[in-house]
Design brief:
Length: 310
């Protein structure tokens, strides 16, 4: 084996990448995994995960990701602390460039994830995970019986607002325009729900709170009248989109209109034979740790079977 050649290279160390590594390593493929800019992925930015199976009392995000790393290392995964800056998937072996080194591989698994888009306010950053969230499925349960706000006007915002009414007393849906972008069916559902109040033509002005209590209120500004009011909410769900980490694959792999990698239905195959994608980078719908881990497992199995056929 050449020094920089591997059977399988995995990009990304979130739940998808580590799960792919565990499966590929246990299939004797000696995978190399590159951490990228955020070792452990998105879950390292949160403290309490209550919906990952196997942890009846919940688990800290960093703890879960450290454990996944240890499990991958136990089965001969090689970890490289570097961000991939370029790939060449036009010929085999594939080329992966990271920290001025070029690695080659027979199969490539992409698990580079996605990042939530935030509004960009200083107070929003200050109260992230202390009232501000980008995932109602993940954090909605913590706001049982409380008043919360959702910001956004597309399908995700409408879905999140509707979902939050399952346990929140009231949900304000803040939208900067006077009509939604989301589908007609979702709009109807939201407008008929008496727990949801739409705050039209408005933007978030400031997340209010303190370091002990976290977020305690939210002020919004009407963009037409300039009026500022406080909604009395203890949670803010930002639902203005996600950005898949796919810049380095542009023009090289097929993507959908939101720049998520296209994969074959029911598999993790991309449009380039031998290149597989898993986790949030190819999933604009579910975006959960357990679904990322599930597709990470699929990608390793797909890669192993494809290599065996070669
Ligand atoms: C604050 C927060 C709380 C959340 N809470 C929950 C929860 O309670 N339950 C739940 O199920 N989900 C939760 N999620 C969602 C969950 O974190 C994601 O669905 C999951 O992490 C996706 O896993 P992934 O492996 O696809 O990608 P990610 O976790 O996004 O990891 C992507 C990986 O790719 C790497 N990478 C990126 N670019 C490159 C590059 N150029 N080269 C090499 N590597 C690269 C990154 O460094 C990172 O390691 C939460 C998300 C956030 C942000």
């Amino acid at each position: 084996m050449e020094e920089n050649h591997r059977k399988v290279i995995i990009l990304g160390t979130g739940p998808a990448g580590y799960t792919a590594a565990i499966y590929a390593a246990r299939a004797n493929l000696n995978p190399m995994i590159l951490t990228g800019p955020q070792k452990g992925g998105q879950l390292t930015t949160t403290t309490e995960i209550e919906n990952f199976p196997g942890f009846p009392k919940g688990v800290d995000g960093n703890q879960l990701m450290n454990d996944m790393e240890q499990q991958a290392l136990r089965f001969d995964t090689e970890i490289v602390f570097a961000e991939v800056t370029d790939v060449d998937v036009s010929t085999r072996p594939f080329k992966v460039i990271a920290a001025d080194k070029t690695y080659t591989s027979d199969a490539l698994i992409i698990a580079t994830g996605a990042s939530a888009r935030y509004i960009g306010l200083e107070s929003e950053t200050r109260f992230k995970n202390k009232g501000v969230s980008a995932c109602a499925t993940c954090d909605g349960f913590f706001y049982k019986g409380q008043k919360v706000a959702v910001v956004g006007g597309g399908d995700t915002a409408l879905e999140e607002a509707s979902y939050l009414t399952n346990f929140c007393e009231k949900v304000y849906l803040i939208h900067r325009r006077d009509e939604f972008r989301g589908s007609k069916a979702m709009q109807d559902r939201v407008l008929k729900n008496n727990k949801i109040e739409v705050v039209w033509d408005s933007v978030v002005e400031e997340v209010i709170g303190d370091d002990v209590k976290g977020m305690t209120d939210l002020s919004v500004k009407n963009v037409k009248t300039g009026e500022i009011k406080q909604l009395g909410t203890t949670g803010l769900f930002v639902a203005i989109g996600h950005i898949p980490n796919t810049d380095i694959f542009k023009g090289k792999l097929a993507m959908d209109d939101k720049n998520y990698l296209d994969i074959e239905h029911g598999s993790t195959k991309t449009n380039v034979e031998g290149v597989f994608a898993c986790g949030d980078v190819a999933d604009s719908k579910y975006r959960q740790a357990v679904t990322a881990a599930g597709t990470g497992c699929m990608a390793a199995i797909d890669a192993e079977r494809w290599l065996a056929e070669q």
